[in-house]
């Protein structure tokens, strides 16, 4: 079809989409096995393989794509989802299949950034000092270095996809043992690797293989000196976490979320909040214990010794007409960017009530029904983002200028165009790694407007 | 129908249920207006007004009962819900109505204890010192006294319902102004009353009425001396919060949840966790500020100054056959009591992953699908309970003895009988004020097994 030569990458995408059009399941499976990233690629007018299979009534292809975890949310240039297309062309067995899995959040939303549990936390091992010490000096153990709560990364320009990815720099025991012995260093046990080695690793005997342990090393040594330890190129410590920590693979983002949240807590909570004394690290870096033996925090039930996680509600407020949604912007946002409203849950407040209070405080809009959609850990510093859809019962906007600069109702068409066609000066949405972005996509997908 | 004389209370319940049987909407409405507590009363064999109206096909009565917030979860002695009854007798318009509102949590579950937002928090007023001071000395302002983070209450035996209720002791400015001026006292602004006075208050001019503000006063003065201040009888400070704080009305429980969570935070976080210095109260008791002007906590974004809320997952794990659920017991539980598994969310963890990790750690059971149901603030000390249903993908139980003593699969029948017929030696469920109880009832109701 193309009248100009295709690049290697374009050609493989073309072959993949063509297999979906023809219902050629073996070919499609073969291509996916070699290049898993094909799954959500788009061709002409933004059509994905799922849309093409849905258009042409290939039930088994749709089923296979879903089982490979393909994303059901994208819309084509006519703002149709795969579900809309199947329904329009009368393939009700396919539209039912696409609707069915919608009951679980995992079926609708892609896995959220920072959420992947790459390691098995093995929290019971945190109190096993002998085991932890043995792991520390094991040559297979992986260490990550953090300076001022940010991880050392190396930047790799991915030629094929033109995506810029950051990669955590990994160290072995010998390379960091001087650091971890310093009294000010914080050592956090993150867990052990989940995956068993493949059978092709013939040198490893069955049963004898122990999955490597991972540790985060938090230090305030001079960053330039720390960078010299690394054998990799293009190493650096991100300085602006809100932007720079969004460039990891899903696997590494999950590890960063865990490690950074705990390190930020150590950084801000090094003194006993009950009596003001110094504290020491325990339980693989997941506990701080007051050094004052008289302190009340050593008796009874309380939370002073454990890492803090702050629950936050973040919500897409839907207009009573169901065809508009409310977004707001802070002064600190880039020009044209709007996002979901959000705020910390207060003591003595349920999730749904926090949503209603925050929306009314920030925008003056009243909310009735609130529905939980998904959650995301957000390690800046240590939040748990609880994502909801909320149905407005009033529409007048009165902004609290201390909180946000502006709030506005946007039509479904405006949102879908911004999602599909990218940023325009009037409306830029937050990046896809954020739960705000995913809530907006979820709403667009769940109520496609043909 | 009764062959023995009815008490006044029994008689009014009888009239109410009879109106539901006959479909007499005016009578039913009149009785409800005078005695709102009739709404969920049961008569012969545990039948509620909703069940009786559903049995007899009175759509408008069912509608009216629902709009008054009646509970759809109860089962009669045959373990049937109102929905089951409507369906069995072929009143599909009624069973559809009962099923419809099931989409929103608020339609299925009663409002959870500790969740009622009786006061308008008016968080923007927390920074308005002049306004706060004016409210403090206002003669209409309501003060609640807390000693060692527990509220002063008076006990009233309710003759009519034989329920024992505790009531918060209320004080006026003149009665506590010496206390609130002491430097060690913590004064927390809780909000202002939501309800406008009814028009019958003829002395109050339109527009001039200001809703009274509420404050909590946290003090460590001698409890006996504090009790002497009260003009009411039977006053005391509860000593076992886990039991004693479950005896308030819904309105007061919500206020206690807010006040106690903030006071517990002050009690455990009076020193700056970043540098160990002393701190001072600000923003109506909702902020602590480090007194050391060099402290890093005074610059940048962090959470050290604000009250802590700990998110906890609590989950009913459902057997793959959907007809059994997993409950566990801690050593500290009363004999025969089992409850939902629960645990704190860790840094860098999404809600669904925390559910899977906790269930596997505590019971060895693996979980697939996780669905959020409802949330509850729990002020012992300051938790946010996030309630989920989780579908197991394995069934073998292997208990972590450090966490729980025993875990067991219970059949739907065992659970329904314990819910309906009360405690028996084999299985006692947690009290109705807990989210664990409500999750269990939700599961029983959603899948009634006729």
UniProtKB/TrEMBL annotation, chains A, B:
Q: Which GO terms describe its molecular function?
A: metal ion binding; NADH pyrophosphatase activity
Q: Does the keyword NADP apply?
A: yes
ANK repeat feature ranges: 45-77
**Gene3D superfamilies per the UniProt record, alphabetical:** 3.90.79.20, Ankyrin repeat-containing domain (1.25.40.20), Nucleoside Triphosphate Pyrophosphohydrolase (3.90.79.10)
UniProt signal peptide: none
This protein's major location comes to cytoplasm
Q: What is this protein called?
A: NAD-capped RNA hydrolase NUDT12
Organism per entry: Takifugu rubripes (Japanese pufferfish)
Q: Taxonomy-wise, where does this protein's organism fall, top ranks first?
A: Eukaryota, Metazoa, Chordata, Craniata, Vertebrata
């Amino acid at each position: 079809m193309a009248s100009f030569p295709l690049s290697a990458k374009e050609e493989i995408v073309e072959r993949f989409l063509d297999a979906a059009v023809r219902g050629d399941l073996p070919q499609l499976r073969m291509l996916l096995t070699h290049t898993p990233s094909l799954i959500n690629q788009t061709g002409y007018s933004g059509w994905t393989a799922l849309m093409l299979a849905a258009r042409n009534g290939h039930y088994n292809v749709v089923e296979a794509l879903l089982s490979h975890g393909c994303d059901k949310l994208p819309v084509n240039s006519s703002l149709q989802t795969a579900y809309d297309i199947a329904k329009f062309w009368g393939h009700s067995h396919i539209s039912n299949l696409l609707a069915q899995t919608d009951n679980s959040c995992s079926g609708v939303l892609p896995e959220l950034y920072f959420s992947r549990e790459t390691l098995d936390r093995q929290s019971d091992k945190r109190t096993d000092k002998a085991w932890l010490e043995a792991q520390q000096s094991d040559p297979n153990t992986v260490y990550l270095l953090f300076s001022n709560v940010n991880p050392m990364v190396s930047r790799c320009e991915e030629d094929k996809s033109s995506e810029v990815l950051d990669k955590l720099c990994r160290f072995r025991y010998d390379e960091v043992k001087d650091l971890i012995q310093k009294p000010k260093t914080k050592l956090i046990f993150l867990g052990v690797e989940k995956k068993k080695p493949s059978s092709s690793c013939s040198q490893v005997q069955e049963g004898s293989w122990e999955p490597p342990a991972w540790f985060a090393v938090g230090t305030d040594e001079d960053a330039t000196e720390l960078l010299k330890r690394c054998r990799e190129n293009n190493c650096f410590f991100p300085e602006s976490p809100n932007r720079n920590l969004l460039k990891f693979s899903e696997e590494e983002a999950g590890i960063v979320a865990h490690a950074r949240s705990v390190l930020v807590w150590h950084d801000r909570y090094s003194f006993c909040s009950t009596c003001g004394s110094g504290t020491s690290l325990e339980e693989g870096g997941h506990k701080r214990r007051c050094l004052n033996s008289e302190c009340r925090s050593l008796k009874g039930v309380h939370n002073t010794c454990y890492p803090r996680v702050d629950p936050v509600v973040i919500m897409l407020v839907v207009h009573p007409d169901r065809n508009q949604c409310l977004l707001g912007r802070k002064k600190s946002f880039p020009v044209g960017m709007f996002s979901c409203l959000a705020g910390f849950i207060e003591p003595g407040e349920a999730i749904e009530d926090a949503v209603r209070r925050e929306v009314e405080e920030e925008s003056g809009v009243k909310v009735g029904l609130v529905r939980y959609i998904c959650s995301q850990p957000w390690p800046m510093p240590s939040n748990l983002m609880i994502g909801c859809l909320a149905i407005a019962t009033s529409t007048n906007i009165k902004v609290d200028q201390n909180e946000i600069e502006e709030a506005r109702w946007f039509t479904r068409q405006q949102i879908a165009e911004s999602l599909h066609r990218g940023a325009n000066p009037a409306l830029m949405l937050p990046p896809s790694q954020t739960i705000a972005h995913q809530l907006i996509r979820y709403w667009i997908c769940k109520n496609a407007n043909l």
